[in-house]
Specification:
The structure is a single chain. With 334 residues, the chain is mainly beta. The chain has a single domain, classed as TolB, C-terminal domain (Neuraminidase), CATH 2.120.10.30. Helix content is 4%, strand content 43%. The chain is built from one helix and 28 strands. It has one helix spanning 9-20; strands at 3-7, 32-35, 51-54, 61-66, 71-76, 81-86, 90-95, 113-118, 124-128, 133-137, 144-148, 150-151, 154-155, 162-164, 170-174, 194-198, 205-208, 214-219, 225-230, 237-243, 249-257, 273-275, 281-285, 288-292, 298-303, 310-314, 319-324, 327-332. Strand 24 and strand 25 (298-303) form a beta hairpin. The radius of gyration is 18 Å and the shape is globular. Mean pLDDT is 92; it is low at 2-15 and 19-27.
Length: 334
C-alpha cells in the first residue's frame, strides 16, 4: 500500500467551503438540516425536519436498520446495551450485556458493543469493544459466537466499526477507545491501531497500521474503494484506499481534510459514515453530519447541540437515522 502523503486540493476546498458557510447553531439547539448546495434537494426535500426519536442514552452509537425486525438497533457502549427502536413500540433494551460483562472500569472504558452490521445470512455482527472481538448473534435463536479476536496471536484493542463486503469479508477498525488508558493501557497488545479485513476461515489481514485513530469505515458501492475516518483531534480526516481484486489496498490518500472545520462550537470529529448507492457520502465531522457528493463537494450538514457520531439508512432507504450523543435523530430522505 502506498500513501502519497498529500492532501487533495478538492478535500481542502470542501472543508473550507463548509467552514465559511457554517454559522452557529440556533439558540434553541434543536437539530436541523442546513442546505449548502441546491444539489441537496434531490436527496432531502426543503424544510425537512430532523426529529428526535430517542433520548436518555449515555452515548449513542452503531445505528443499524434491521429489515427482519422492522426496527432500528443502536448501541450504548458505556452502558453495555444494544437498544431497539420501532415506530410501533418506541425504544427498548434489545441486548444486555452487548459486550463484555463484569469488566473493570479502571481498564475498560467502554464495555459494550460499538458498531453493528448484518452478515450475508442476516446475522447481527457486533464490534465488541469491551470484549475486544468481532461477534455474531443469530437473530432467530439468540446464540452468540465470537468470530475473531486476534491478529498475529495478539488481542485486538477495541473493535469499533465494520463494513461487510458482498463476498462476506468484514472490514473493521480497531482504535484504543474502549481501553481506559488508550494507547498506554496495560491491556493493549497490538503495537498499532489498525484497519483490518477478515474472511471466515482465514487470518485477519492488516489493511493499514499507520493511523492514529481509525474509526468509521465504509466501502464504495462498487467496492473498489474503502473509506476510513480518522478521529484524530490534531488531524481529523477521511482516508480513501483504492482496492485490488482481492479487496486489498494498492494506494491511499486523504479524501476529506476536516481540520479547518474545527472552529469554536463545532463539536465532534470525523467518525461514522454511510455511502448511498449513488456514491453520496453521509459522514460525521466537526460540527455535525455532512452530506457530500462522491467527489467531496458539500451539499448539506445536519447540526445538533453536540457531536453526531454515526448514521444509518433505514425504512427502505427513505430515512437517515443518526446517533447524536445522548439522542437518536431521524430525517426523511427522498
Amino acid at each position: 500500500m502506498r500513501d502519497d502523503g498529500r492532501i487533495g486540493r478538492r478535500a481542502v476546498l470542501t472543508a473550507g467551503a463548509l467552514l465559511l458557510a457554517a454559522p452557529a447553531l440556533a439558540a434553541d439547539a434543536r437539530p436541523r438540516l442546513r442546505r449548502l448546495s441546491p444539489g441537496l434537494d434531490r436527496i432531502v426535500a426543503p424544510n425537512t425536519p430532523v426529529e428526535v426519536i430517542a433520548t436518555g442514552i449515555r452515548w449513542a452509537e452503531g445505528p443499524l436498520w434491521v429489515p427482519a425486525l422492522n426496527a432500528l438497533l443502536f448501541t450504548d457502549p458505556p452502558a453495555n446495551i444494544v437498544r431497539r427502536w420501532s415506530r410501533a413500540s418506541g425504544t427498548s433494551v434489545f441486548l444486555s450485556p452487548s459486550g463484555a460483562p463484569g469488566t473493570d472500569p479502571k481498564l475498560i472504558r467502554e464495555p459494550g458493543a460499538n458498531g453493528l452490521a448484518l452478515d450475508r445470512s442476516g446475522g447481527l455482527l457486533l464490534a465488541n469493544s469491551g470484549g475486544r472481538s468481532i461477534d455474531r448473534v443469530d437473530l432467530r435463536t439468540g446464540a452468540r459466537t465470537m468470530l475473531v479476536d486476534r491478529y498475529q496471536g495478539r488481542r485486538f484493542n477495541s473493535p469499533n466499526d465494520m463494513h461487510v463486503a458482498r463476498d462476506g469479508a468484514i472490514y473493521f477498525t480497531d482504535p484504543p477507545y474502549g481501553l481506559t488508558e488508550g494507547d498506554t493501557s496495560p491491556l493493549k497488545e497490538q503495537s498499532v491501531n489498525g484497519v483490518y479485513r477478515w474472511v471466515a476461515g482465514r487470518q485477519p489481514v492488516l489493511i493499514d497500521g499507520t493511523l492514529t485513530r481509525p474509526n468509521g469505515i465504509a466501502l464504495s458501492p462498487d467496492e473498489r474503494r474503502l473509506f476510513v475516518s480518522v478521529s484524530d483531534e490534531k488531524a481529523p480526516r477521511i482516508m480513501v484506499y483504492d482496492l485490488d481484486r482481492r479487496g486489498l489496498p494498492i494506494r491511499s490518500r486523504v479524501w476529506l481534510d476536516a481540520a479547518s472545520l474545527q472552529v469554536p462550537g463545532a463539536k465532534g470529529l470525523t467518525d461514522g459514515m454511510k455511502i448511498a448507492r449513488d456514491g453520496t457520502m453521509f459522514c460525521s465531522a466537526p460540527g455535525g453530519l455532512m452530506i457530500l457528493t462522491p467527489d467531496a463537494k458539500p451539499l448539506g450538514v445536519v447540526e445538533a447541540d453536540g457531536p453526531i457520531a454515526n448514521c444509518a439508512f433505514g425504512e427502505n432507504g427513505r430515512t437517515l437515522f443518526m446517533t447524536a450523543s445522548d439522542r437518536v435523530l431521524r430525517m426523511r430522505l427522498r
